[in-house]
Write a structure and sequence with these properties.
single chain, alpha+beta, Aminopeptidase, twelve-stranded mixed sheet, 12 strands, elongated, binds coenzyme A
């Protein structure tokens, strides 16, 4: 099997997948956040692994060292394409059904973040998000990761705490600050952008309670589902979400060419 790029000047490249000269399907690639993404693979499941291999070889010959693939849960073609490969999990997308009102946690209550708290939070958020992207392999260059982190923070929080649809809280057990939470709500969809428990308060069940308090607050704001992204290396957080009832909707892998 072999692939051939169809000449074009759009953002996406279409590749014809051929076996002995006959076209058996197509693949599509495009740039996303500095990396190359497989944006489509339209072949029979039985041809998928071979088609992907041919594409990786062609990309390698063009000097591309990796390809990122988003795999929705139950995507038969992509699952067949990736079977047996060594994969680097870059991120997992997860979703919680918020149809029912979540129970109130026992200890944790949320308070809106103050302007002073937001100032220091924003700085550490930019550094931490850049580090997460480096650890997940989305970037290899620290300055570029930092630049992307600043851009994404500005986009999401253009007016700081007043940014429409963005809700930032500190989480407390009585008067003790245990963590922070940031959720965006565009009803009926909600999305957790950040959750963090203070280092010295971890593994005491606060993470789960902050999550539950956030689910309740998001429900009050009209959300009926709550999504989030967890980076591939963050096994602890993924376990926390699975135990809290989140289902995996998509996994993102990075493949070496
Ligand atoms: C992820 C995080 C919020 C968890 O907070 P926490 O208060 O320690 O979580 P909990 O005590 O409620 O943990 C609940 C369960 O989640 C799982 N879990 C949480 N952290 C874990 C870890 N580091 N390793 C393995 N499992 C972990 C465990 O199953 C745990 O239950 P257990 O302690 O009975 O084994 C915290 O580690 C943190 O702030 N990390 C840095 C920021 C971060 O990664 N945020 C997530 C971004 S997607």
């Amino acid at each position: 099997m072999e692939v051939a790029a169809v000449p074009g000047d759009g953002e996406e490249t279409t590749w014809l997948v051929r076996r002995r000269g006959a076209t058996v399907g197509t693949a599509r690639t495009r740039l996303r956040r500095g990396g190359l993404l497989l944006s489509g693979l339209d072949v029979a499941p039985a041809d998928a692994a071979e088609a992907l291999e041919a594409l990786l070889v062609a990309l390698g010959e063009l000097g591309q060292d990796s390809l990122v693939v988003d795999v929705p849960a139950d995507d038969r073609v992509l699952e067949a394409a990736l079977a047996g490969r060594t994969l680097q999990l870059q991120a997992t997308q997860m979703l919680l059904d918020l149809t029912d009102v979540p129970a109130r946690p026992e200890r944790v209550a949320l308070r809106p973040m103050t302007a002073a708290e937001f100032e220091s939070y924003r700085d550490q958020l930019i550094t931490a998000y850049a580090q997460d992207m480096l650890d997940a392999g989305a970037f290899t260059d620290r300055d570029r990761a930092l630049e992307a982190s600043v851009v994404s923070t500005e986009e999401l929080l253009p007016d700081g705490l007043e940014s429409p649809g963005q809700h930032l809280w500190t989480a407390h057990d009585g008067e003790v600050l245990v963590g922070i939470l940031w959720i965006a709500v565009d009803a009926p969809a909600g999305y957790i952008y950040d959750i963090e428990v203070r280092h010295d308060q971890r593994r005491r069940g606060y993470g789960r309670e902050v999550l539950d308090a956030g689910a309740r607050a998001a429900h009050d704001l009209g959300a009926r589902e709550l999504g989030l992204n967890v980076f591939g290396h963050n096994d602890g957080a993924r376990t926390l979400y699975e135990r809290a009832g989140y289902a995996t909707t998509e996994r993102t892998y990075r493949l070496a060419t």
